[in-house]
Amino acid sequence: MAKQALNIVKMKKMKQDGEKLTMVTAYDYPSASLAEAASVDMILVGDSLGNVVQGQETTIPVTIDDMVYHTLSVRRGATHTFVVADLPFMTYHGSIDETMRNVRRLMQEGLAHAIKMEGGMEICLAVESIVKAGVPVIGHIGLTPQSLNQIGGYRIQGKTAEDARRLLEDAKALERAGAFAIVLELVTEEVAAEISKQLTIPTIGIGAGRFCDGQVLVYHDILKYDPNYRDKKFVKTFADIGAQIRQGLEEYVSEVKSGQFPAQQHVFTADENVIPELYGRRKAESRA
């Protein structure tokens, strides 16, 4: 019997029962297929694809077309896993009609189960409207990559009482607006723990300590799948496939250069009469 995708009711019950949620950020068919085979609870198609897949310096250049394309690719690979798609930069800060058009594209064209939005109280009206339209929403506070230019780069959030208070107020506002979960990114452990305690909806941490209701990491970080990988304090790598891929490619190049590949077992042979017949036909044609 095929695995059934989680739903937002089950996720809330998992929080109540103390069962941790697992989320992986993935961007294509093969990574989604492997994540589903590993029984990951949720897959996030993050706009971090700008950094990880496109080689951009930030997530800001990522478009709604990019997100639709990658979300649909992930859905093809993970047909029985709850898939969340990011609304990218400036796609939900204009009119509500424009926001709804972008949400519709992720849901109808990308086949997402839910969307994720960065921001706190300032986006709550949009969150409320989207939820009322029947679309599940995950909030995202703490470090919000779409706002890097405003917040001054990759800085830990919640280090002061004022900052902690702001994060808690944002989290509560998102819950009231109808978000069914909230991602806490690069938030101090103490503040993330308090937010998780005060909310009835799950928190999903990335660099937010041990006491969130779930965790999310990027597929490429988990597997060290990056030629220019840099260690991150909040990441644990569970395999180093980047080194294995590089080694495999180097061996391929070496064997092609030396003539070792393809070997006899890699070739296809014709019937024994094919070459004589072909040779004879060419000889006859040359005489004519």
Automatic annotation (TrEMBL):
Protein name as catalogued: 3-methyl-2-oxobutanoate hydroxymethyltransferase
Keywords: Cytoplasm, Magnesium, Metal-binding, Pantothenate biosynthesis, Transferase
Residues that hold Mg(2+) according to the record: D47, D86, E118
Co-factor binding comment: Binds 1 Mg(2+) ion per subunit.
Function: Catalyzes the reversible reaction in which hydroxymethyl group from 5,10-methylenetetrahydrofolate is transferred onto alpha-ketoisovalerate to form ketopantoate.
Pathway named in the protein's UniProt entry: Cofactor biosynthesis; (R)-pantothenate biosynthesis; (R)-pantoate from 3-methyl-2-oxobutanoate: step 1/2
Keyword flag Metal-binding: yes
